[in-house]
Specification:
Length: 365
């Protein structure tokens, strides 16, 4: 730890001041340590600070010990990326009001931050939209695309699961601390992501609840991390619409997936489309809009099955092309279930394949 780092952790512990305050104070003093120890009269002289922000900081600071903050996070094996950290994502650093720091579980370094696609939409998404989104994202299977979303119910969940099931990386940005994961139904998905599939990020201390106003604030990070934003389903007044507007403010490519016009959750979609958003009905629409030429990950390695038995080669050949369930593998390989289970178990123990949240088998990363 350098002498300054603990003060980034201390600022992250504050609950009465937001990143805009910390960024402004840090910019003014040019040192996070000086910013933390600033006297009241110095703070009042900084242009752009609000009275409530200053009073909130001065009231909380005496109760926060920077050394204890640092030790607490390190003991929890939680990583922390702040504005002076070279790992801080370039795109996010240059948005208006970037998060001062981000707590992280998982590994951001495995994600290609030049191929980031944010996917947002309704928590009560229709089955039609979920199905269409899964089909579109499956077109990125085994590539270096990284899906960014918010780990909420509905479209967010479909987006992250599609990433996991199709062997692509994903970043989840949550609206509370790691000890207050919301929704609880996504705990398994949360664990899948941090165990080799990407990273989960939050700007909130571990014990902070995921309260309602955190989510629209969180949305600036989702879009800020991304080259483009795909809105899969959205009502006129919704968090997804907020993210869509943030995407335009941040000069990101805004795309929309059309849905049934009789569905109220598509009103926002058609509003954005009328105002110039790109329509997406297939995977190639996204690639064209973003000007991407994606690369399949480790293709040569994954297709070199010469050291495996004939039956193992057969199974791996199918799995290397698509994530498949047990039933799908039975149909494709014509192997009996007992023999297939033995082979799959062996390949999984050897680290060649792994199983996803949707009980599909994929090539291990």
């Amino acid at each position: 730890m350098n002498n300054n780092e603990k003060y980034w952790y201390a600022f992250a512990k504050l609950t009465k001041t937001a990143s805009a305050f910390v960024n402004r104070v840090y910019e003014h003093f040019g040192s996070i340590e000086l910013a933390w120890h600033a006297e009241a009269y110095d703070l009042w002289r900084i242009e752009g600070l609000q009275e409530r922000q200053i009073k909130g900081f001065l009231s909380e600071r005496p109760n926060i010990n920077p050394d204890e903050c640092y030790e607490y996070i390190k003991e929890r094996n939680i990583d922390f990326i702040h504005l002076e950290d070279e790992r801080y994502p370039y795109l996010l650093r240059h948005i208006d009001n970037p998060p001062t720091g981000l707590f992280m579980l998982g590994d951001l370094s495995v994600c290609n931050l030049e191929r980031t696609l944010a996917v947002v939409g309704s928590r009560r998404a229709s089955e039609n939209s979920k199905k269409n989104l899964r089909n579109i994202l499956s077109g990125f299977a085994n590539t270096d695309i990284c899906i960014v979303s918010g780990l909420a119910e509905g479209i967010d969940t479909v987006a992250h699961k599609a990433a996991v099931d199709n062997n692509i990386k994903t970043i989840a940005v949550i609206g509370g601390g790691f000890d207050r994961l919301y929704p609880k139904s996504n705990i398994k998905l949360f664990n899948d992501i941090i165990n080799g599939r990407g990273a989960v990020l939050t700007e909130y201390w571990p014990d902070v609840d995921a309260i309602s106003w955190h989510f629209p604030v969180r949305n600036r990070i989702v879009s800020g991390l991304s080259k483009g934003v795909l809105v899969a389903e959205a009502a006129l007044k919704s968090g997804a619409m907020i993210t869509g507007k943030l995407a335009l403010e941040q000069n990101r490519e805004l795309m929309c997936m059309p849905g049934l016009i009789s569905n109220p959750n598509t009103e926002g979609i058609y509003s954005l489309l009328k105002n110039g958003a790109t329509m997406v009905t297939k995977t190639d629409d996204i690639l064209d809009a973003l000007g991407w030429q994606v690369q399949t990950k480790n293709t040569e390695k994954k297709n070199n099955f010469s050291n495996f038995s004939e039956e193992e080669q057969l199974i791996l050949d199918f799995i290397s092309k698509d994530a498949l369930t047990m039933d799908e593998l039975i149909l494709k390989t014509n192997l009996n279930i007992d023999n297939l289970m033995v082979i799959l178990t062996k390949l999984e123990l050897d680290g060649v394949i792994s199983q996803t949240t949707g009980e599909k088998y994929i090539m291990a990363v």
